[in-house]
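Late entry, evening session. Most of the bench is empty. Finally got around to the prediction I had been postponing all week. Sequence below, unchanged from the version circulated by S.P.
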Amino acid sequence: MDAISVKPNTSNIIDALWAVIQAQPKKVREALSIRLAEDNASAKKMITPAMAKQIRKARQEYSKGETVSCQTPEEMQQYFDSL
């Protein structure tokens, strides 16, 4: 395998990783591209638009301090029982 070169003063790990990827044979780069596309597609399936909306709402509530706090397992059980 040939040596790779990274530009001087490159502190960005992504740039260094990109240099390693570019140095790979075409077949390896193609396989990596396919794998990344598959991973990306499966990740999109994991978080549905409805779930993303709920996550945004929860983050907003949390930032406003609209949360429930339980100090003991008993308090948590009481909270769950009240739902």
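Two things to note before I forget:
The chain has a mean pLDDT of 83.
The radius of gyration is 23 Å.
Will write this up properly tomorrow.
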